[in-house]
Amino acid sequence: MSGPDRGQPGFEEFVAARRQALLRTAYLLTGSHEDAEDLVQVALVKAVPHWSRIADHPEPYVRKILARESVSRWRRRRWRELTTDELPDRATTPGLDHGDRLALRDALALLAPRQRAVIVLRYFDDLTERQAAEALGIGVGTVKSQTRDALARLRQLVPDVDETPDSTPTPLTR
Amino acid sequence: MTMLHDRLADLADEAPASLPTPGLWDRGRRYRRRRRTGTLAVLGAAVLVLALLGGVTWHRGAPPVQPATGSVGLPDRVWTPSPWLPTTARPGRLVAVTGAKQGSWTGMSPGVVGISAITGEYAFLELPDLNPSHVEEVALSPDGGHVAYWLSGETEGTPNTLFSSESVAGVAVLDTATGTVQQHRIPTEHGIEPGLLTWVDADRVAFEAGQIVAGDDGSEMDQGSTREGPLMVWQPGQTPAPVAANGASGTDVIAAGHGRLVVADWSTDDPGRFRVIDLDDRSQDRRVGLPGPDFQYGNRLPVAIDASGQQLARVEDGRSPNRIRAGRFFHQPQVPRSGGTFAVLGWLDEDTLMVWRRADRGPLDRTVLGRVSVRTGAFEEKVRFPRLVGPGNVQFATDLLDAPSVHAEAPPRPLDPRVVTGLAVGTVLAAGVALLLWRRRVRP
């Protein structure tokens, strides 16, 4: 049996297979279609220089770039953009419960970027605290405190939501 | 209540649909090239700066190329030493020593620089337990092979810090060829007040160590009082012996050299109040006349005795600089045209002295060392000094004063290692920060 291709074909194959899953995470991290697209593209481009090394198991590395880039680009934008408590109206997908989605989307937007990333990594990507810490390049203690603060804020903003109990993470197959 | 996980998954369904984006691989390759180019540029610049720093450090610290004659020479110029010269315990034969500030990571401290008689190199001398308050009183032997100095040490009782911050507790001699140091510790209750420290010949050093009467807990008067010690002669490796010269002490010695001491009896004005002590043959001791001298400069004695023990030379009393008187005992006429002389270092032959005098040309604070004819007063300049350097600042090996004159290149002036280290660390940090900023700034 031959291993994954360590060149362009292997990369293209990975992109075709996992791009949508990455977009879902990116959308939760950014709350914007354009930003999610851009974030995934940046993460994939940044993974290219390391592709020969990560070709066997590229997803954790790409998700690490995704998470860190979402925090750092928010920091960069913070100096250029005005912040507001009122979120712009967005298009919604027909057939979904718009009220619930809107409430969660708005609540996520009010979290600090690192808190938001921690919530997405822990409760959507099902990473453990240690994995989330590695992905964000921070300490486990920081992940714990950021999670605690983020959940407290979410409970205030979206009272009817309950967090998933801590458990071993499920494989990233979304 | 709904689970957060489910709510996030539901929200994620709003994510945009995946569309083919051609060229990601090529963008990634270009991104890698840009990052690599920037990284190499920053690292290259850092390496260049470090190499430049290393080159300048090496260049300034490298000793000048001197002709390797292998024989001793008298440098035609003495330079002001850098505080960052290297330190050595085995400098080899020295032509001169001078006090200088020595730099360290924590600041400056007094040190002693030796000038090699063979290579002309300058280096700080490693003098273990050198008392920092008496650095200027080190004594270079006439042949340049030994350096005597006062030792720091513990006192048996309360130390006296009025005289020096560290108590003096003995004498030591460094062998400049082997680097070995011989110490003679002197038991003391409150510390020693150094008196005389001078070489009688190449092998024997004479010293007088006064005992301080009281420590810091004594009365003010006692704290400032000392008891004169006996005049001792010490050949390193042997036990020091007192020079029984009718109770002579260090303050009585006006000349030393060629195995002889000339001591004065200050209690009388009699012209014949001086005594020549021949340490190798005490039966040759004799009373001699020497009009005038009633002062001395610590161990740098104002009178030079010749090798035969028959002639003395000195600068006239009254003012400094002044003319020279030189000749046999009881009859020492003025040396013609010898005004402007600060000190007589020694006799080179029956008619020639080596003297330290004001330079004929240049600023008034510039002095020179040169040969002067006792008979005619003819002067030949041999050694130049930096401004404000005079007798007491540089001490020569008197046996080497008639060595061939050699051109002395300026000693190295190494950079302050704290500055070098700071610049190197700063460069590395700056490169690191620049690299970090560049890698963050460069966008795929």
TrEMBL record, chain A:
Keywords: DNA-binding, Sigma factor, Transcription, Transcription regulation. It comes from Nocardioides koreensis. PANTHER family: ECF RNA POLYMERASE SIGMA FACTOR SIGM, RNA POLYMERASE ECF-TYPE SIGMA FACTO. Residues 102-154 form the RNA polymerase sigma factor 70 region 4 type domain. InterPro entries: RNA_pol_sigma-70-like, RNA_pol_sigma-70_dom, RNA_pol_sigma-E_actinobac, RNA_pol_sigma70_r2, RNA_pol_sigma70_r4_t2, RNA_pol_sigma_r2, RNA_pol_sigma_r3/r4-like, WH-like_DNA-bd_sf. Belongs to the sigma-70 factor family. ECF subfamily. It comes from the Bacteria. The lineage of its organism: Bacteria, Bacillati, Actinomycetota, Actinomycetes, Propionibacteriales. SUPFAM superfamilies: Sigma2 domain of RNA polymerase sigma factors, Sigma3 and sigma4 domains of RNA polymerase sigma factors. Residues 15-80 form the RNA polymerase sigma-70 region domain. This is SigE family RNA polymerase sigma factor.
TrEMBL record, chain B:
Keywords: Membrane, Transmembrane, Transmembrane helix. The chain crosses the membrane at residues 37-58, 419-438. It comes from the Bacteria. This is WD40 repeat domain-containing protein. It comes from Nocardioides koreensis.
